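Researcher: Please predict.
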Amino acid sequence: MARAVDPKRIPCCVPFCRRTRKPDQYDQWICGVHWRLVPMAIKAEYRRDRRRARRILNRRPEYREYWKLKPGSPERLRAVAMWGRLSQVWAKCKRVAIERALGI
């Protein structure tokens, strides 16, 4: 019989992993066991892009709410590109963790 998952907790992104954590600013996470399966090069890429995004957001806090910027403006395009890049690298980390955990 399957155990019920607490709706207030966030499960690991890897299917069939039973680890959870308290919710915070993120809605997805990879537990430590599965994060170790991600190659160092991909983790370094993710950390680098997170640092870049943090530096940009410190200089331009309006990029946090890019949808409020004028559509088509260079500022909005740069903000969308920054968030898009970070999202792509996170998706790569998640995909690799799932593939390696499931032995694909």
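Model: The helical segments are 32-35, 40-59, 74-102.
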